[in-house]
Amino acid sequence: MLDNAGITNTTTQLQINVILNAFCLVCSLVGTYFIDRLGRKPTAMISITSLTIFLFMVGALTKSYGTNSTNTSGIYATVAMIFLFQGSYSFGWTPLLYVYPPEVLNYSIRANGMGVMQLALNGTALMAVFAFPFALVAIGWKTYLINAAWDALEVPFVWWYWVETAGKTLEEIDELLDGVKHSTAPDVEKVIRGEVGRDELSLEKADEEQDLKE
Ligand SMILES: *[C@@H]1O[C@H](CO)[C@@H](O)[C@H](O)[C@H]1NC(C)=O
């Protein structure tokens, strides 16, 4: 990406990459905080919308000020957009990739589902790592536009299909997706609001103890 942006000095590339990774760490920590505060879905929407816009900007700026340009302002702008793009990704996707799938997969398919998810994720990453350098050499800045167009499709997908899971127990999420509650544990929200009292909780426990004795 930096080669295409017009930064070919390897030391400069290394410095930018070190700072970029540190920046992404901070963004993902902030995102980790927000997936509980804002919820999974809004965080994903913010992340995808902004990363799509920034990736289109990377493409446009690479086209205008890439490879053969000497306009340093333009090259800096491209680097800034790469930072904003990667930061937007880290804000949403870095935490969500590991929080959301195990929440929406129900108990019986959780382990296998995570296996399939990791296979798909790493398979796609493998493809991208090998294919993108060739794509960048062959069609340059257009690679970004194709990628960003795909990201744009994810916005309505998340909007329509994602179910908010923040603040719910796995049993409550199960009920949300299945329509059936497979557990007798009281809902967390009800306990917090005081609708299910300690008495009720301890009564259930007392009943169980009584049953055991009998
Ligand atoms: C870089 O490009 C912009 C937009 O075309 C222009 O305003 C600016 O003067 C250029 N800077 C240099 C150093 O050529």
UniProtKB/TrEMBL annotation:
It comes from the Eukaryota. Its main location: membrane. It holds the Pfam family Sugar_tr. It is a multi-pass membrane protein. Coiled coil: none annotated. GO terms for molecular function: carbohydrate:proton symporter activity. The keyword Membrane applies. Keywords: Membrane, Transmembrane, Transmembrane helix. The chain crosses the membrane at residues 14-35, 42-62, 74-98, 119-141. PROSITE patterns: MFS. The keyword Membrane applies. It is found in: Membrane. Residues 1-166 form the Major facilitator superfamily (MFS) profile domain. GO terms for cellular component: membrane. PANTHER family: HEXOSE TRANSPORTER (PTHR48022:SF31), PLASTIDIC GLUCOSE TRANSPORTER 4 (PTHR48022). Belongs to the major facilitator superfamily. Sugar transporter (TC 2.A.1.1) family. This is Hexose transporter protein. It comes from Mycena sanguinolenta.
